[in-house]
Specification:
Layout (H helix, E strand, L loop, with lengths): L1 E10 L2 E8 H4 L4 E5 L6 H13 L4 H6 L14 E8 L2 E8 L2 E4 L6 E4 L2 E6 L15 E3 L1 H12 L3 H7 L1 E2 L3 H7 L2 H11 L3 H39 L9 H60 L2 H55 L8 H9 L10 H137 L1 H6 L29 H39 L4 H22 L2 H54 L5 H46 L4 H8 L4 H22 L2 H4 L10 H63 L10 H24 L4 E6 L12 E6 L4 E4 L5 H22 L7 E5 L7 H16 L3 E5 L3 H6 L3 E6 L6 E5 L1
Parallel strand pairs: 3-15, 3-16, 10-14, 14-15
Antiparallel strand pairs: 1-2, 1-4, 4-5, 5-8, 6-7, 8-9, 11-12, 12-13, 16-17
Helix pairs in contact: 6-23, 8-21, 9-19, 9-21, 10-11, 10-17, 10-18, 10-19, 12-14, 12-15, 12-16, 12-17, 16-17, 22-23
C-alpha cells in the first residue's frame, strides 16, 4: 500500500482545504511532519484513517467530532485520499455526518455521511457496485472493498501503519490480560475462540444430556422402589434386578394358589348354609299359612252380612243420582229467575236517564209463567232487546270519533300554553345572543395582537440564543484568562530559570571540553608504552610524556556534562513551549473577552440568558394563543349560526300558534253539539255503551230462564221413574239404603277376604310344604359362623393374590425401565467423560500442563514470531546488547502464561523484565516491537506489502547517539522500498531529515497551515 495524495476540507483543526503530496514527501523514502504540540500533525494521520475506514484511532474516534468548528457554515467536510493497493490505483472520498445550516429557512439539518471509491485505472473484475463500473458508493460496499484490498481491519491498520503515541511502550510494560487484548485485535483468533466455544457448548450439551438421563434413571429407580415396596431395590444392578423379578413372580404364583383353595372352601360352606336356610324358611312359611287359615275361618259370618248390605246400597245409587240432578235443575231455575230480574231493573234504570222504554217484564212474572203458563203472559222478546242493543253500539261507535277529537282538543290547549312559553324564551335568547355576538370582535382584536407578540418572540429566540452563546464564550474566556494570568507569570519565571540553568550547563560543558582538550596530551601519554609508537608524533621513545594535572577532565566527565546540558535544553524547550502555548492561549482569550473582566462578562451573559428565557416563555404561548384565537373565531361563527336558528324558530312558533287557535275554535262547536244532553261527549258515549250492554245482558238472562224451566220439568219426571225401577217404596227408603254402608270400603274388604282365602289354599297345596313338619325346629347359628369365617378367609386370600399380582406387574415394568435407562446412560457417560477431558485441554485446564487455552496458544505462537523478528531489530538498534525473549511461564494468581515478553541483556547475560529499561531504551524496544508487529500482521493478513508507515512521536526521549541508531533502523526500512513518515516536534530531526512538512499556525488566526520544505 502506497499513499499518493491527501486532500481534506473543514476536517479536524483545518477550516479550509488542505492538500498533502505524499509522492513528493516520500521521494527520499523518509519525511518528517513537525510542528508545535497541538497544531494538527496527528489530524493528518486521522484523515488518512478516516478516508480508509470511516473512523479515526483511539479516543478521538469515540468522540465522533470530525468537522472543524471554525469552518464556514457552507463549507463541506470532505477527505479525499489517492493511493495504490494491490497494484491498483484508486481514489477514496468520505464525508462524516454533521449538522449544517438549512438551504431554506433558519436552523440546521443533518448532513448524512457519504463514501465513494473510484478506480483510477481498470476496475477489477466483479467490482461493479451501486456506483457503476468505475467505482463504488455506500459505506458497506466501500468498506468491504478496502478490507479486501488491504487485508487488515481498522484496529490492525492503526497498530501496524499508524504507529500511535506510547501505545507499544504500554504494550511492552503491560500484563498478560492487556497484552492479550491488543494481540486479539491484531491477529484474527476468532475461529479458535469459536472452536473453544464449540467444545464448551458440546460439553454443556453433553452434561445436560447426562444429567437428564441420570435424573430419568433416578426417577425410574424411585418408581421401582415404590412398586417393589423395597427401598433397597433403588440401588440394584442388572443381576439383582433380574433376581428381584424372579422372586416377585414366584410370590405372585403362590398367592394365586392360596386364593383358589380359600375360594373353594368358601363355596362349600356357603352351599351348606343355603340348604339349611331354605329348610328353615319352608317350616316358617307353613306355620304362618296355617295361622292365617284359622283367622279367615273366624271372619266368614261378618263378610256374609256385608255382602247383603252392599247389594241394597248398589240398588239405591241410580235413585240418588236422579235426585241430585233434579235438585240441581231446581237451583238453576231459581238463579236464572233472579238474574233476569236484576238485568231488567238495571236496564230500566239506565233507560230512565234518557227517558227511553226498557221494554221488559220482571223475573217473578217469568217464574210464575213457568209454573202456571196458562195464567201469565210470555216473557219479553230477547231478539227485540238485542236489536235495541245493536243500535246503541252503532251510536257509541259514532261518538268514539268525536271523543278522540275531544282528547285532541285538550292536547291543542296544552300546546297553546307551551308555545307561548317557548316564544317568550326564544325572544329572551335572541336578545342575549345579539349582545354576545356584539362583544366578540373586540376580543378577536385583542387575541390577534397577543398572538403576533408571541410569534415575534419566537422569531427572536435563535438570535437571542446566539447572543447567549457569544456572551457565554466571552464569560468563559474572561474567567479562563483570569485563572491563566498567575500561571503565565509563574511560567515566565520557570522559563527564565530554565534558560539560566541551560546557559550554566552549556558553559560548564564548554569549560570541561576546553580543559579536556588542554589535558589531552596527558591523557594520550597515559596510554603510551615503551617500544610502541606515539599516535601523535610516531616516535618510538617517549622521554618526556606529559603529566596529568590535579584537575584532569576525563571523557566521562564531558559526557556527563553533555548529558546534563541536554537535559537542561529539553527542560528549557519544554518550558518555552509551555510559555508560548500559555501566551497564545491568553492572546486568544483576550481577543474573545473583548476587554471585559469576569464579573462584567458574567453579568452580560446572565442578562442575555434572561432575555432568552423571557422570549422562550413568550414564544411558548404561540400555540396556546393561536388555539385560543381559532377557538374564538369558531365560537363567533357558532354564535351567529345559533342566533339565526333562534330567529327561524321564533317565526315557526308564531305560525304554529295561529294554526292552533283556529283548530280549537272549530272543534269546540262540534263537541257541544254531540254531547247533549250530557256535559261531555265521553259521558254520552259511555251511557249509550252501558245501556246497550244492559239490554244484551237482559236478553241473555231471558234465554237462560227459558232453558232452566225446561230442565226442571224433565229432571222431576226422571226422579219418579228411577224410584219405581229400583224397587223402593219411596224416595226416603232409597235414601236410607244408600247411606246404610260405605260401598267402596265394603267392596274392598270382601275382595281382600276372598283373595286371601284363595292364596292360602294354593300355598298349602304346594308339594314342598305338604311334606314339611310344621313343628320342626332348626339351629342355623353354627353353620352361619362357619360360612362367615370361610368367606373372610377367601376375601383375604383374593386381596393378597391381587396385591402380589399388582406388585409383580408394576415391578416388572419398573425393572424394564431401569434396565433401559442404565443401558442409555452408560455410553453417554463415557462420551461425556471423554468430551469433558478434551474440552478442558482446549480451555487450558485438566491435562493441559501448560494451562494454555487454544486461543492463548495461538496468540503465544504469534507473539513468539513477533519476539523473534523484534529481537533481531532490537539487537541492531541497541548495539548487539538487547533482544526480546518470549516467556511461557504462568503468572501469579493462576493466570495462564504464554504471553510473557522479557529482555535479554547480552552484557550481563541475564533476562530481566521490560519495565526495567530506561526511557530511551524503552523507545527502542517499543519501536522494534511495533515494526515487528507490522511485519508479522502484514504476513498474517496475506503478505500485503506496506509501502508507507507512520511513526507518531516518542523521539524526545532519545539522546543523539540513540537517535542515530533509530535513524539507521528507519533507513533500513527505506532501503526495503518503504516510505517512512515521522511525526514529531523534536528539533534535531529537522536537521537530520531534509524532506519536511511543517504544520504551523499563522499570526492572523488559530487555523493551521502546511509548508513543505
Amino acid at each position: 500500500m502506497r499513499l499518493h495524495r491527501l486532500t481534506l476540507s473543514a476536517f479536524g483543526p483545518y477550516p479550509g482545504e488542505v492538500e498533502v503530496d505524499f509522492d513528493a514527501l516520500g521521494e527520499a523514502g523518509l519525511f518528517l511532519l513537525h510542528g508545535d504540540t497541538g497544531v494538527g500533525k496527528t489530524s493528518l494521520l486521522d484523515a488518512v484513517a478516516f478516508a480508509l475506514y470511516g473512523t479515526v484511532p483511539g479516543p478521538r474516534g469515540q468522540a465522533k467530532r470530525l468537522r472543524c468548528d471554525a469552518a464556514e457554515p457552507h463549507t463541506r467536510t470532505v477527505v479525499t485520499l489517492e493511493l495504490s493497493l494491490s497494484g491498483r490505483r484508486l481514489l477514496l472520498t468520505r464525508s462524516p455526518e454533521y449538522l449544517r445550516p438549512k438551504t431554506r429557512g433558519e436552523g440546521t439539518t443533518k448532513q448524512p455521511a457519504k463514501a465513494t471509491l473510484t478506480w483510477l485505472d481498470e476496475a477489477p473484475a466483479g467490482s461493479t457496485g451501486s456506483g457503476g463500473p468505475a467505482g463504488l458508493t455506500g459505506h458497506r460496499e466501500v468498506g468491504d472493498a478496502v478490507l479486501d484490498l488491504i487485508g487488515m481491519s481498522a484496529d490492525q491498520f492503526f497498530q501496524v501503519v499508524l504507529l500511535p503515541q506510547g501505545e507499544f511502550a504500554r504494550f511492552l510494560r503491560s500484563d498478560t490480560a492487556e497484552r492479550e487484548q491488543l494481540l486479539e485485535r491484531l491477529f484474527d483468533t476468532g475461529r479458535f475462540a469459536d472452536i473453544e466455544e464449540a467444545f464448551a457448548s458440546m460439553r454443556r450439551e453433553s452434561g445436560q444430556q447426562l444429567r437428564r438421563l441420570s435424573d430419568e434413571l433416578q426417577r425410574r429407580r424411585a418408581t421401582l422402589a415404590e412398586a417393589s415396596t423395597s427401598d433397597a431395590a433403588a440401588e440394584f444392578g442388572a443381576e439383582q434386578l433380574a433376581a428381584l423379578a424372579r422372586t416377585q413372580q414366584a410370590a405372585a404364583q403362590a398367592a394365586e394358589s392360596a386364593s383358589e383353595r380359600a375360594q373353594q372352601a368358601n363355596k362349600v360352606a356357603a352351599a351348606e348354609l343355603a340348604a339349611l336356610t331354605q329348610r328353615a324358611e319352608l317350616v316358617r312359611s307353613k306355620q304362618q299359612l296355617l295361622a292365617q287359615h284359622r283367622q279367615l275361618a273366624g271372619q266368614a259370618d261378618e263378610i256374609q252380612a256385608k255382602r247383603k248390605a252392599l247389594a241394597g246400597a248398589l240398588a239405591a245409587v241410580p235413585v240418588m243420582q236422579a235426585r241430585a240432578t233434579a235438585d240441581g235443575a231446581a237451583s238453576e231455575l231459581q238463579r236464572a229467575a233472579a238474574a233476569e230480574r236484576q238485568a231488567a231493573r238495571r236496564t230500566e234504570q239506565l233507560a230512565a236517564r234518557c227517558g227511553e222504554d226498557a221494554a221488559g217484564w220482571n223475573g217473578n212474572d217469568l217464574l210464575q209463567a213457568a209454573e202456571h203458563a196458562d195464567q201469565f203472559g210470555r216473557p219479553p222478546d230477547a231478539g227485540e232487546l238485542r236489536r235495541l242493543a245493536a243500535t246503541g253500539r252503532e251510536l257509541a261507535g259514532t261518538l268514539a270519533a268525536v271523543v278522540a277529537e275531544a282528547g285532541q282538543q285538550g292536547d291543542d290547549e296544552r300546546r297553546r300554553g307551551e308555545l307561548a312559553a317557548e316564544l317568550a324564551e326564544a325572544v329572551d335568547q335572541i336578545t342575549a345572543g345579539e349582545t354576545t355576538v356584539g362583544a366578540v370582535p373586540g376580543k378577536l382584536t385583542e387575541l390577534r395582537d397577543r398572538l403576533a407578540a408571541a410569534e415575534q418572540a419566537a422569531a427572536e429566540v435563535p438570535g437571542l440564543k446566539a447572543d447567549v452563546a457569544a456572551a457565554t464564550a466571552v464569560a468563559d474566556a474572561a474567567d479562563t484568562l483570569q485563572r491563566l494570568q498567575p500561571q503565565l507569570a509563574d511560567c515566565g519565571e520557570q522559563v527564565r530559570a530554565a534558560v539560566d540553568a541551560h546557559q550554566h550547563s552549556r558553559e560548564l560543558r564548554q569549560q570541561l571540553t576546553e580543559r579536556r582538550f588542554a589535558g589531552m596530551a596527558a591523557e594520550l601519554a597515559a596510554a603510551l608504552a615503551d617500544g610502541e609508537r606515539c599516535p601523535v608524533c610516531g616516535a618510538g621513545e617517549h622521554p618526556h610524556p606529559a603529566r596529568p594535572s590535579d584537575d584532569q577532565v576525563s571523557s566521562a566527565d564531558v559526557a556527563a556534562a553533555q548529558q546534563q546540558e541536554n537535559a537542561a535544553a529539553e527542560q528549557r524547550t519544554a518550558q518555552e513551549t509551555r510559555l508560548a502555548e500559555l501566551q497564545r492561549r491568553c492572546a486568544e482569550l483576550t481577543g474573545t473577552a473583548a476587554g471585559l473582566d469576569s464579573e462584567q462578562a458574567v453579568a452580560a451573559r446572565d442578562a442575555a440568558a434572561a432575555r432568552v428565557r423571557a422570549a422562550v416563555a413568550l414564544a411558548g404561548q404561540t400555540g396556546k394563543r393561536a388555539k385560543a384565537l381559532q377557538a374564538l373565531e369558531q365560537r363567533q361563527l357558532e354564535l351567529q349560526q345559533h342566533l339565526h336558528q333562534l330567529m327561524s324558530r321564533r317565526a315557526a312558533l308564531v305560525t304554529e300558534s295561529h294554526a292552533i287557535e283556529d283548530r280549537l275554535r272549530d272543534r269546540a262547536e262540534l263537541l257541544r253539539r254531540h254531547a247533549r244532553p250530557f256535559a261531555t261527549v265521553a259521558e254520552r258515549r259511555q251511557h249509550v255503551s252501558d245501556l246497550a250492554g244492559a239490554r244484551e245482558q237482559w236478553a241473555a238472562a231471558v234465554d237462560a230462564l227459558h232453558t232452566a224451566i225446561g230442565a226442571a220439568t224433565r229432571t222431576g219426571q226422571a226422579l219418579k221413574l228411577s224410584v219405581e225401577h229400583a224397587g223402593f217404596a219411596d224416595l226416603e227408603a232409597a235414601a236410607a239404603a244408600a247411606t246404610a254402608i260405605d260401598i267402596d270400603a265394603a267392596t274392598a274388604q270382601i275382595r281382600s277376604f276372598e283373595d286371601q282365602q284363595v292364596a292360602v289354599a294354593a300355598r298349602l297345596a304346594d308339594p314342598q310344604l305338604a311334606e314339611v313338619d310344621a313343628g320342626q325346629r332348626l339351629d342355623l347359628a353354627p353353620v352361619q359362623l362357619r360360612a362367615a369365617d370361610a368367606e373372610k378367609r377367601a376375601a383375604a386370600a383374593i386381596a393378597a393374590a391381587e396385591t402380589a399380582r399388582r406388585v409383580q406387574r408394576r415391578s416388572a415394568t419398573a425393572i424394564k425401565a431401569v434396565t433401559a435407562a442404565l443401558g442409555a446412560l452408560a455410553p453417554v457417560a463415557a462420551r461425556d467423560a471423554e468430551l469433558t477431558a478434551l474440552a478442558d485441554v482446549v480451555a487450558g485446564r485438566g491435562q493441559n500442563a501448560r494451562a494454555l487455552s487454544l486461543r492463548s496458544y495461538v496468540l503465544a505462537a504469534r507473539l513468539r514470531q513477533v519476539a523473534e523478528v523484534a529481537g533481531q531489530r532490537l539487537l541492531r538498534m541497541s548495539g548487539q546488547r538487547y533482544s526480546f525473549v518470549h516467556s511461557a511461564e504462568r503468572e501469579s494468581r493462576g493466570r495462564s502464561g504464554g504471553l510473557g515478553l522479557d529482555i535479554l541483556d547480552a552484557h550481563t547475560g541475564t533476562v530481566r523484565p521490560a519495565k526495567t529499561l530506561s526511557g530511551g531504551e524503552s523507545f527502542l524496544a517499543s519501536l522494534a516491537l511495533a515494526l515487528a508487529l507490522a511485519d508479522v500482521v502484514a504476513a498474517e493478513s496475506g503478505g500485503q506489502l506496506l509501502d508507507t508507515v507512520f511513526v507518531d512521536e516518542g523521539f524526545g526521549t532519545l539522546d543523539a547517539q540513540t537517535l542515530d541508531v533509530v535513524m539507521d533502523t528507519l533507513d533500513d526500512l527505506r532501503a526495503d522500498g518503504r516510505t517512512v513518515g515521522l511525526v514529531s516536534h523534536v528539533d534535531d530531526l529537522r536537521q537530520r531529515i531534509p524532506t519536511r512538512l511543517h504544520v504551523r499556525r499563522t499570526p492572523a488566526g488559530p487555523a493551521p497551515v502546511l509548508q513543505t520544505s
